[in-house]
Design goal:
Blueprint lengths: L10 H10 L4 E7 L5 H14 L4 E4 L10 H12 L4 H13 L6 E4 L2 H7 L1 H11 L3 E3 L9 H9 L3 E3 L1 E2 L5 H10 L4 E4 L15 H9 L6 E4 L5 H8 L4 E4 L1 H7 L7 H13 L5
Parallel strand pairs: 1-2, 1-9, 2-3, 3-4, 4-5, 6-7, 7-8, 8-9
């Protein structure tokens, strides 16, 4: 890949802008290559045009332990389509070439990164316009190699914290955190849920007490009232399975339009 200029991280300005407007930043998750690489690109561009704050783009993987059935299925389809790590990086490059300015974080598991070469992966992704990385199966205490590479290229390594995380682990994570912290809303895997945990405020309060880094909540956010609840305590909300479950009901050519409709539904501006 040809070397491009390394852009500074966009997360700080993005979250600051939404905070100034007293709005929660909606961050859609899209699996690269699902249902095809072309359609996933169209979905992302449509959501960006609709006002999505930032994007979590999933790197397809054969054993996504943190993901529920919906995201697992999307990974399986993308892998059957032959989607590779280089294809995900190239997708980001095309999004940037199309003028998309929203922050992008890649979510993927560690083994493909090691096979690619951790330092080379960060370099290539940064050159394409990736702002950060989420690696669910990489514990913070084992993240030195990736963390160092991210610092070298001015990217954010986004760590995940769960309701079961100890105060000690939260403190350790907070020391390294940049961009935002991914706050898992429940114990379990990704997937749409009817209700958010009543303990969400206390849980996020434990994290906020140790850091000023923006907090984004993921897992189970599927209704406008969930977004309202998250917005009382956090800076961002990640929507994934519920949006995918919705647009999966329609023909593939309608996916970008339906994803946009779900985005507006979450804002309280549309019915499903």
């Amino acid at each position: 890949m040809t070397t491009a200029s390394i852009q500074p991280s966009r997360f700080d300005a993005t979250f600051a802008g939404f905070r100034a407007r007293s709005e929660v930043a909606i961050m859609p998750f899209v699996t690269a290559g699902y249902p095809t690489i072309e359609t996933s690109e169209k979905i992302i561009l449509a959501l960006a045009a609709a006002g999505a704050a930032a994007f979590e783009i999933g790197i397809p993987y054969s054993d996504p332990l943190a993901d529920g059935p919906t995201v697992q299925h999307s990974s399986q389809v993308a892998l059957r389509n032959g989607t590779k790590l280089r294809d995900v990086i190239a997708l980001v490059q095309r999004l940037r070439d199309a003028g998309m300015q929203a922050p992008i974080v890649l979510m993927g598991y560690y083994n493909p990164l090691v096979r690619y070469g951790v330092e080379q992966f960060v370099a290539d992704a940064a050159a394409a316009g990736v702002d950060g990385f989420i690696v669910p199966d990489l514990p913070v205490e084992e993240s030195d190699r990736l963390h160092t590479a991210c610092k070298e290229y001015g990217r954010n390594l986004v760590y995940m914290i769960a309701p079961t995380s100890t105060d000690e682990l939260i403190a350790t994570t907070a020391e390294r955190a940049s961009g935002f912290i991914y706050c898992v809303s429940v114990t379990g895997v990704t997937g749409a849920r009817d209700q958010m945990s009543q303990a969400l405020g206390d849980y996020l309060g434990r994290i906020r007490a140790k850091t000023d880094v923006p907090l984004a909540v993921g897992f189970g956010i599927s209704r406008p009232e969930h977004l309202e609840q998250v917005g009382k305590h956090a800076d961002g909300a990640i929507i994934a399975s519920a949006m995918m479950n919705y647009f999966n009901q329609f023909p593939e050519e309608e996916f970008p339009e339906r994803a946009t409709r779900f985005f507006h539904y979450m804002q309280g501006n549309a019915d499903l």
